TrEMBL record:
This is Histidine phosphatase family protein. Coiled coil: none annotated. It comes from the Bacteria. It holds the Pfam family His_Phos_1. InterPro entries: His_Pase_superF_clade-1, His_PPase_superfam. SUPFAM superfamilies: Phosphoglycerate mutase-like.
Length: 169
């Protein structure tokens, strides 16, 4: 069994709305299609995704298989739109996981406490096959650190494309 963590495609950024409401940018569909045909994802797998529109739309473009939507796979909750210092906020979130890195942001420890048990349940049920989860960069960075026992790789987080794939053997 291998776990594939797919970061969603490029969204239509609307700084007046929370990122959780953003749709996938139609001009980014080709990037998602390119990932689909790249051979980087398994042919047969159990598929699940975040309920956020940009994630569900990415999953729909990536597979013809059924995709389960799990609320717990959503990104770190942020009730505000884009921050000019977004990267600094994310770094602060990981540096001090029990504190909100910006007003309206969920502490990253709370993200971990909902995400990790949900992923462990999926892996327990589907442990005999590959699993693909479609979601978000910050959540996946946190998840990889938790599953591997390594510190969060914030350099890799900063380099992640939209879409992108992290593989956890």
């Amino acid at each position: 069994m291998t776990l594939f963590l797919v970061r969603h495609g490029r969204p239509l950024v609307d700084p007046t709305r929370p990122a959780a409401e953003w749709e996938l940018d139609p001009t980014a569909y080709d990037d998602v299609w390119a990932l689909r045909v790249s051979g980087r994802l398994p042919e047969l797998a159990a598929w699940f995704c975040s309920p956020e529109p940009k994630a569900t739309q990415t999953a729909q473009l990536l597979t013809d298989a059924g995709v389960g939507i799990l609320d717990e796979l959503r990104e770190q909750e942020r009730d505000t739109g884009w921050h000019a210092d977004f990267e600094d906020c994310v770094r602060r979130a990981f540096a001090d996981p029990d504190t909100a890195a910006a007003p309206g942001w969920e502490p990253i420890a709370a993200t971990r406490d909902r995400l990790l048990p949900a992923v462990r349940r999926v892996l327990d049920v589907h442990g005999d096959q590959d699993v693909v989860l479609v979601g978000h960069g910050t959540a996946w960075t946190l998840l990889v650190a938790e599953l591997t026992g390594r510190p969060p790789d914030l350099a890799r987080w900063a380099e992640m494309a939209m879409p992108d794939v992290l593989v956890v053997p």
